[in-house]
Task: inverse folding
C-alpha cells in the first residue's frame, strides 16, 4: 500500500524477538530500566539501549527519568491493545514460546493487561457489566451508563477525577487467552487499583498474574460477576 499509515514500520519494530520480549515485559504495567529489559530480552545492555531507542522513536515505548535512573514504559493504552491482540493471534495459531506450565492456568484466570484486569475473571466482569446495563456499546464505542456511574461510585471509584483525565473512561480490549473482551480505559485501571487497595488481590510483578485471596475472589464475584455461573 503506497498511501495511508505505514503498518510495516510498526510491524518491523514489534517483530524483532528481543523488542517483542521487551514490550511483553512492559505489559505488566510497571516501568522498567534498560538493564531489566535487557535481561528480559536476553541481550546485552548496549543492544537493549539500541532497541529501546528504536521503540521510543517509533512511538511504542516512552522513557521517563526519576533521579539518576531512566525507566521505560509502553507509550499508551493503544500500544497495549495492539500487543494483547497480537498475543491472541499468536496463541490462536499455536505460536507459543514455550509449553504451558503450572503457572499457565493462573495466568489465564486473572492477569494484568498493562494496567487493567484480564483473563477469565476480566472477561466475566466485562460480560456482567454489559449484561446488567452498567456499560453499553454505542456503535464502536463503549460508555458507562448512569447506573454504571452509581455502581462505580459505590465501589469507591473517583469518577470526577477520571472524567477530568485525558484517557478514555471505558475501552474494550480483546483478551488474548479468552478471545473475548475485557474492560480497559481509565475505569478498568481504577477498578484493578481499587481491588488491590481493598486487599482482594495482588499482582505478581514478574509474571503479570493477579492472585486473589479466597475472600477477595468471593467478594469480586459477588460484585462484578453477578448472575454468572
Result:
Amino acid at each position: 500500500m503506497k498511501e495511508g499509515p505505514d503498518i510495516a514500520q510498526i510491524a518491523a519494530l514489534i517483530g524483532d524477538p528481543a523488542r517483542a520480549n521487551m514490550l511483553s515485559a512492559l505489559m505488566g504495567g510497571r516501568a522498567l530500566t534498560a538493564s531489566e529489559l535487557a535481561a528480559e530480552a536476553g541481550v546485552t545492555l548496549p543492544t537493549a539501549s539500541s532497541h529501546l531507542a528504536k521503540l521510543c522513536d517509533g512511538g511504542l515505548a516512552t522513557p521517563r527519568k526519576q533521579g539518576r535512573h531512566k525507566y521505560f514504559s509502553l507509550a499508551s493504552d493503544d500500544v497495549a491493545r495492539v500487543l494483547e491482540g497480537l498475543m491472541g493471534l499468536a496463541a490462536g495459531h499455536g505460536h507459543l514460546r514455550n509449553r504451558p506450565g503450572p503457572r499457565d492456568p493462573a495466568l489465564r484466570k486473572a492477569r494484568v493487561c498493562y494496567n487493567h484486569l484480564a483473563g477469565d475473571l476480566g472477561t466475566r466482569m466485562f460480560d456482567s457489566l454489559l449484561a446488567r446495563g452498567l456499560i453499553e456499546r454505542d456503535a464502536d464505542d463503549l460508555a458507562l451508563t448512569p447506573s454504571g456511574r452509581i455502581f462505580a461510585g459505590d465501589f469507591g471509584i473517583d469518577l470526577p477525577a477520571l472524567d477530568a483525565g485525558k484517557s478514555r473512561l471505558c475501552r474494550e480490549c480483546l483478551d488474548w487467552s479468552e478471545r473475548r473482551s475485557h474492560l480497559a480505559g481509565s475505569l478498568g485501571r481504577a477498578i484493578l487499583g481499587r481491588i488491590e487497595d481493598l486487599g482482594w488481590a495482588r499482582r505478581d510483578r514478574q509474571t503479570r498474574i493477579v492472585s486473589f485471596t479466597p475472600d477477595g475472589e468471593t467478594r469480586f464475584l459477588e460484585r462484578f460477576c453477578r448472575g454468572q455461573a
